[in-house]
Design a protein that fits this description.
Strand order of the largest sheet: 2-1-5-10-11-12-13-14
Number of helices: 8
Number of strands: 14
């Protein structure tokens, strides 16, 4: 039996498990970077980490502070220009998985990282989309990592920074997007995945200690729940030790 762990640790571990050895993964800073580096430190040592600054195959010994952290370039297999990153690696679909975060997400996994409130007079101005629109459009699949609250899971985005599944079936095809779009949203309560037909997010797994009622209460729309709701395996001792080692550096 694994030792006690926090909901954030469960979220990071669940995200890390989505990566396989050899996966080419585009990594955002923060929890996505923690999850990707955790995967590389445990079950997927051959995972190829790609950061937006142009580093390919980065092997940081500690969590980078930003995409411009010097250790990413020092430990990378290659460093390319940002235009090459987007035009050669991301655009043609050479990146298998992208991890993204968001301030808001709607039922079709569209993301807001631009403003909270009215665009002209926002309550909060956020960092912006950066490369996320192109990443979500062209990477083979996107995994979103976000806390499960009604502030994040909203009925309507204040601003659509990044298209997930648009307004539902066929939206990505109409826009000419190459990638499959968001295939999972991992939260501190569970895992949501798009319905194959409607593309609406459905709760498919809850983490130990959480339940469907909690997830529904923390969602700004009427969240659908899978008929066969699974339960995530708790973190192993190895996963927790590797995770805490990364966070302690």
């Amino acid at each position: 039996m694994s030792e006690a762990y926090t909901s954030d640790e469960m979220m990071a571990v669940a995200a890390a498990r989505r990566l396989h050895d050899g996966t080419v993964c585009f990594v955002g800073i923060g929890l996505p970077s923690l999850a990707a580096n955790l995967a590389r430190a445990t079950h997927a040592p051959g995972c190829v980490l790609v950061y937006e600054s142009g580093t390919i195959g980065a092997k940081p010994s500690e969590l980078p502070l930003s995409i411009g952290d010097g250790e990413l370039a020092e430990t990378a297999d290659a460093v390319v220009s940002v235009p090459e990153m987007f035009n050669y690696w991301i655009g043609p679909g050479r990146v298998e998985v992208a991890f993204l975060g968001a301030a808001q997400i709607d039922r079709h996994a569209n993301l807001n990282t631009t403003v909270i409130g009215d665009y002209e007079h926002p309550k909060t101005r956020l960092p912006g989309a950066g490369g996320a629109p192109e990443i979500a459009a062209s990477c083979k699949q996107t995994i979103v990592v976000a806390p499960h609250t009604t502030r994040t899971f909203v009925e309507k985005l204040d601003f659509c920074s990044t298209v997930g599944h648009g307004d539902g079936p066929g939206a990505r095809e109409r826009l000419g997007f190459r990638g499959a779009g968001p295939t999972a949203v991992i939260t501190d309560l569970g895992v949501l995945e798009p319905d194959p037909e409607t593309k609406e997010l459905v709760l498919t797994h809850v983490h130990p200690g959480a339940d469907a009622a909690q997830a529904r209460e923390a969602t700004g729309w009427e969240l659908r729940v899978a008929d066969e709701l699974g339960t995530t395996e708790p973190p192993s001792e190895e996963e927790l030790a590797a995770l805490r080692e990364l966070l302690s550096r």
